[in-house]
Amino acid sequence: MKGYSRKDEGCPRLLDLIPKEKERLTKSAEEKKTRHGSSEEKQLELRLGPPNGDWTIKNKNISREKDHESLLPFGYFSPWSSSSGTTPFLQAHGQLKESSQPNPAKTAVPNSSSSSSSAQKRTAPTPVVGWPPIRSFRKNLANGSSSKPVSELQNAVGSKISSEKPIENSPKSLLVKINMDGVPIGRKVDLKEHDSYEKLSFAVDELFRGLLAAQSNFSAVGIKNDEDGGKAITGLLDGSGEYTLVYEDNEGDRLLIGDVPWHMFVSSVKRLRVLKSSELPTLSRGRKHGKLSLDTSPK
Amino acid sequence: MSEDEELPDLGGGSTRSSNSTAVSGGGGDHNYVSPSPDQVLENVLENVLCFLTSRRDRNAASLVCKSWYRAEALTRSELFIGNCYSVSPRRVTNRFRLVKAIAIKGKPRFSDFSLLPPDWGAHFGPWLSAMSRSYRALEKLYLKRMSVTDDDLSFAAQSFPILKELVMVCCEGFGTGGLAIVASGCREIRVLELMDSDVGDDEADWISCFPDNVTCLESFVFDCVEAPINFEALERLVARSPSLKKLRLNCYISIGQLYRLMIRAPQLTHLGTGSFSPLEIVAQGEQELNYFSAFAACKSLICLSGFREIIPDYLSAIYPVCGNLTSLNLSYANINAEQLKPVICLCHKLQTFWVLDSVSDEGLQAVSAACKDLRELRVFPVQALEDAEGPVSEVGLLAISEGCRKLQSILYFCQRMTNAAVVAMSKNCLDLVVFRLCIMGRHRPDHITGEPMDEGFGAIVKNCKKLTRLAVSGLLTDRAFSYIGQYGKLLRTLSVAFAGNTDLGLKYLLEGCPKLQKLEIRDSPFGDSALFAGLHHYYNMRFLWMSSCKVTRQGCEEIARQLPGLVVEVITRDREENETSEYVDTLYMYRSLDGPRADAPRLMVRPSLMICGKHCTSTECRFSIARSLDFTLSVWVPCISR
């Protein structure tokens, strides 16, 4: 029986790209995910469960395919193998050779009458998707009450570490989170879609322009959602605008955009932030290590 | 607190429309006429209809004649949409003009157990678009199993300036960023409840986004939000919310922080205690906060939950309130019988009790001895595996049935059970309305006699004459279904898994249970001929779900052909060319006034065209199906003109 992984913290949400780019999305063969945007604009993307991974509880081998997020709770038996032809149920049977269940659960139970004889020995049964019917947040309570419940995949209910990482998707897309000062809703941007800082800056403007306008609408009385989209966000790269684009690298430092060649930036960037220029310490431009000693607490 | 409530408490009453003779807001397609006798009658009717609050009564009233239909449509202020795809938002807003409260349910329940693809649908967006135009005075919004985005929340906050209640149960698609917008934008919000929802951590400090002045918050539930929050902001929020009665904290709140909140809000009636453990283990001799006195100060507390990471030693802090509790949820607390007993023996008023099976049969015996007023019991497994140690069994069930005679609703997970215990419960607890027994090992018989569990479930349907909801498990033959069909005359919801022998099983159900509304079946050997046995009834049902059964594509097509008012969704796992299966993987069908939905993933729906996904050779198929698409979603549209 097929299973579909639950969305959880590290998991790729629906991609939020600029809604206008529908035509680009349809021609792409990649899985893209969008979380924001109305349903009319939203690309209808399917997010599939992890392919190839044999998601049995006993199995620790999680194969990383291009479309699958790195952390998924166990117990979510996903049959979706993008390239392999075998069903994961058969895979599971192959792996758990001790299982003596006569019928894979992918079809109905035609031999239930034969399995109904109480004399039949039941050895370790193949775990089945969605059985027992317990919602995922109720799982993983098996540890002692004095310790925090630990998920087998280190990304769990109760885990208090919210890890910061880009949302890996595939070699063909690199999604990073981007937040803007004063706007609660974050977005994601696919850095592979752009090949220069200018294009990125333009994308950021498009992502947040509408949100900024909506924010300022909120403080006004008589809220109406205008379609004009608000004013453009410019000067992100050179410090001349109201906002400045910065990024956090794999060492957790905050750096100004634009100092390193694009491809180096892409390989080290972990997330992006759009900060109010007035709140940045003055830094000279053009140096290699433009670190901002900002308070990096996200709150 | 119970899940899957049929009808959320939206409050009663409807608005009186006093000017319906003149240009009425609702009857936009009527020209202005001077009041005729008929119109006068409608006026009277509208004022009388105000007193009808039950939606079933209103449905009946609306069928009397056109005049009653119009009057009812103008005065209905609470809407309940049991299946968001059964009707289009436009149709709803055209008919009902004065809606103040709406409840919308989306995905079928089995989606909770990963049986439905993510992004299958149930998007709130289209409903929001329609409602934002027509229901600007909306006060209450209840969503269950809907997919809601941050942008939806933002738009909702803008569209409904007097929104007072927002409740989201089992929803997903949004994060703390969206919550921040709700907090800052919904100035009138009294009830903000997030339950069992998947909320993304956007690192937004949403608690700080509530307005700075005194709030009118009465209920604030966020125990499912798995993200740290700004505690100081929360403390200030609680301090400036004098009307706050219900507060359910998430697991990031330590017991020390809970203490600080409790002393600021002794008026609470419902409290979710968060982690119920300290941030750091308190050293010996160090002064501990007096949690006992904090609880003692909350004299109105009747409902306790939380205990997400409980250190059992702290449980004694709740003794002062146990005597008043009507509801206690320990279903995240891995405690044993000895730790439970001192608490439960004080809870003599308890009506709702959720617990983990870690308390074992012995703990349940203590419940049975102490909680004579118990109405609802849920026993969840610590280890949700088929072959785990089972600390609870028929012994616990029997004890409960003997001690808690007023029991109305039970959900019981166990590893072993006997017919005798289930029969005993059927005779002891005659008020049972909901009976859900989950024997976690598939096809497991009565572990003492080796018999199928047919007789036990048969006794339940036979003796519990008020039963409307049933979930079966264990080894079951067609006989069990014949019992259900024979006696389950009030049954509305039925869950079946790994049960039955032949098509007869399903036939008994479909032919025997006239009130059946929601039928969910998985991994059972029911095929096409059983499916056809329900043709007379499917229009009366909210949905039928069958996964991993023996239903074929042809069978599904035939149903769709014969019942044009049904939407028949088939989800078929993609297979390689050499792999075939005669059976569909999942069938989900439901009645709909507006035909197949347009937002099915990767699907283009046109009349008379069946979309087959990867194997579709039709040149009219507009979308190219990517190779990575691992399943196809087919929706049958009948080949007759609509």
TrEMBL record, chain A:
Organism whose genome encodes this protein: Abeliophyllum distichum
Extent of Basic and acidic residues compositional bias: 1-11, 18-45
UniProt cross-references to Gene3D superfamilies, sorted A to Z: Phosphatidylinositol 3-kinase Catalytic Subunit, Chain A, domain 1
Top-level taxon of origin: Eukaryota
Biological processes annotated in GO: auxin-activated signaling pathway
Region (Disordered): 1-64, 87-134
Pfam families linked: AUX_IAA
GO CC terms: nucleus
Protein name: Auxin-responsive protein
PROSITE patterns membership: PB1
Xref: SUPFAM superfamilies: CAD & PB1 domains
Cell compartment(s), UniProt: Nucleus
Species classification: Eukaryota, Viridiplantae, Streptophyta, Embryophyta, Tracheophyta
Keyword set, alphabetical order: Auxin signaling pathway, Nucleus, Repressor, Transcription, Transcription regulation
Function noted in UniProt: Aux/IAA proteins are short-lived transcriptional factors that function as repressors of early auxin response genes at low auxin concentrations. Repression is thought to result from the interaction with auxin response factors (ARFs), proteins that bind to the auxin-responsive promoter element (AuxRE). Formation of heterodimers with ARF proteins may alter their ability to modulate early auxin response genes expression.
PANTHER family xref list: AUXIN-RESPONSIVE PROTEIN IAA17 (PTHR31734), AUXIN-RESPONSIVE PROTEIN IAA26 (PTHR31734:SF2)
Domain PB1: 173-282
Similarity comment: family membership: Belongs to the Aux/IAA family.
InterPro entries documented for this protein: AUX/IAA_dom, AUX_IAA, PB1-like
Quaternary structure and partners: Homodimers and heterodimers.
TrEMBL record, chain B:
Subunit structure: Part of a SCF (SKP1-cullin-F-box) protein ligase complex. May interact with auxin and auxin-responsive proteins.
UniProt KW keywords: Auxin signaling pathway, Nucleus, Ubl conjugation pathway
Organism: Abeliophyllum distichum
GO cellular component: nucleus
One GO term (biological process): auxin-activated signaling pathway
Protein name, per record: Transport inhibitor response 1-like protein
Pathway annotation: Protein modification; protein ubiquitination
Cross-referenced Pfam families: F-box_5, Transp_inhibit
Record region (Disordered): 1-33
COI1 F-box domain: residues covered: 38-77
Positions of the Transport inhibitor response domain: 99-143
Keyword Nucleus (UniProt): yes
The UniProt record lists the keyword Secreted: no
Major location category of this protein: nucleus
Top-rank taxon: Eukaryota
Subcellular location: Nucleus
